[in-house]
Amino acid sequence: MPGDAAPGTTVAWFHCFSGIAGDMALGALIDAGADVDEVRTLLARLPVSGWELETETVLRAGIGGTKVHVHTEADPPHRAAAEVAAIVAAADLPDRVARRALATFRALAEAEGHLHRRPPETVHFHEVGALDAIVDVVGTCAALEVLGVDSVASSAVADGTGTVRAAHGELPVPVPAVINLLAGAPTYGLPIARELTTPTGAALLAANVVEWGPMPAMTITASGFGAGTADLGDRPNLTQVVLGTRSASVAGGAGQPVVLLETNVDDVTGEVLAHTLGALLDAGAHDAWLTPIVMKKGRPAHTVHVLADPAAADALRAVLVAETGTLGVRGLTMQRWPQAREFGEVEVDGHVVRVKVSAGRAKAEHDDAAAAARALGLPLREVVRRAEAAWLVDGPA
Fold this sequence. Notes:
By secondary structure, the protein is α+β, with helices and mostly antiparallel strands. The protein folds into 3 domains: about 10-245, no CATH class; about 255-335, 2-Layer Sandwich (Alpha-Beta Plaits), CATH 3.30.70.1380; about 340-395, no CATH class. Helix content is about 35%, strand content about 30%. It contains 11 helices and 18 strands. The strands form 6 sheets. The chain has a 5-stranded mixed beta sheet. It has a 4-stranded antiparallel beta sheet with strand order 13-14-12-15, covered by helices on one side. Strand 13 and strand 14 form a beta hairpin. Helix 10 (about 365-375) crosses helix 11. The protein is globular, with a radius of gyration of 22 Å.
């Protein structure tokens, strides 16, 4: 969901170093100062009963956080996506709370619909349709409102490995819904045999985050940790949230630190180079590109460039070496000043196309536009033109 990323507005940055779940997101916001009684008051507007929200202060690997417990009576049968949306819509919630919650459940319905090849509105939620999950999602959106959060940002999202038991049987971790929900977001795996990021946590991010990456430029006002249930040993099973007032990222001010990695290669095929760029982006690079060069003795070659967060430099350097076989990588520490942008969706003849929007400009996402062009039998440039014009004229679908 697009958010206000202007200087002076309030931002919540989720640090998902051990993943994220709905109760962990809610716990982090309460730990950061969201009044739990105000959250309960907003939740009480939901036209459902039989739930109770409690909080507990716990330690995870020596770090204190808030553990949220949602107690429910015997739960009703699995709810359809449309039924869950109707519950939220009937609650007379503040506008931003309702929009954020509905966007979260819509993202879940679309992910599940894609997996089961069904229209999103006909999807039946299993675990996510349970009353405790509804309280987690709406409670998180309520806590964001209590804290006056204008926009949501997130770090790269960690997940584990192995399998997990779900309504559809034994599923691989990351579970398919999480993979679908975090498509296009920076993610990475940890060698921990359990689910670290749940579909509910992933959906909250997918629906509400307007900026991915390191902590954005801000003046910090508060922070908190939301605790998961499991003990991960030396790693704290926590999701962190940092709240602050956005600072302007403009020339003359402190920029976002980045590392530029480069290597020259003259014995790598075009197919391998193309694969390398994709592998680097999948591993969390901000950007990766090629430059044709001429090396000594007149040999044609390429420079592979990788722009990355400093924390990811070692991992990306390893990918660069593994994929190209290069004998050396050089690096340079730099700063960048990314402009605020938001994301939305429009429809082109019934096909949803995501749009990236910055000041005075809208750019259609290539993969969505290409898929719509194939389905409609139209030139790609025509679909792109229509999508970008639709956003500039009418706003989101």
